[in-house]
Amino acid sequence: MSWIREADESEPSGAVAAAFAKDQESLGYVANLTRLLANRPAVLDAWIGLNGAIKASMSPRRYELATLAAALRLRSTYCALAHGAVLADHHVGADAVREVAEGHDTVQLSPIDRAVMDLADKVAAGAADMTEPDLTELRDLGLDDGEILDVILAASARCFFSSVLDATGTQADAVFTDLDPAMRDALTVGRPIATPYPVGRHLAG
């Protein structure tokens, strides 16, 4: 599931076991990203804190839209599936997520939604190539500088996290195979989804 060895639950501080147990409680399995980043528990905690701080200033819908746009540009299957699934379940539906992933417009997105995704895409495509006019569309739609910064932060954070996952060969969790097939296939933009663990392998112990 990754080119890096899985974190060792017997690590003396208990931080790895705690991270695995937290996933088991919230997800019912240990995510591949946790198996990777628990090798460095302080980094895992710092990422959770940073991501939480970014999300705290945004609506969940806007955060997921910006994150999905960045993940698609970065060809991060793991992040595209994870955040596409949240958008589908809680905000716009599976058909709209599929349409976005395939590069089509959808009536489920407002002009602000589209502008948010466009800006996040530009950040992920190459922030050094951006100019101030790239912020104009969101300003014209009424977003203030703090709200625009939130979009940039979400996209930039995804550049970090998606790069870590792909640079270590960490595949999206096998549970994503259960998503709506058309949406799942459209969101599989890079590495394939992991094959399921043998029976019982997903357990933290």
Automatic annotation (TrEMBL):
Stored InterPro entries: AhpD-like, CMD-like
Keyword Oxidoreductase belongs to the record: yes
Domain of life of the source: Bacteria
Stretches assigned to the Carboxymuconolactone decarboxylase-like domain: 41-121
Molecular function GO terms recorded: peroxidase activity
Lineage: Bacteria, Bacillati, Actinomycetota, Actinomycetes, Micrococcales
Keywords: Oxidoreductase, Peroxidase
One Pfam assignment: CMD
Protein name listed in UniProt: Peroxidase-related enzyme
UniProt source species: Oerskovia jenensis
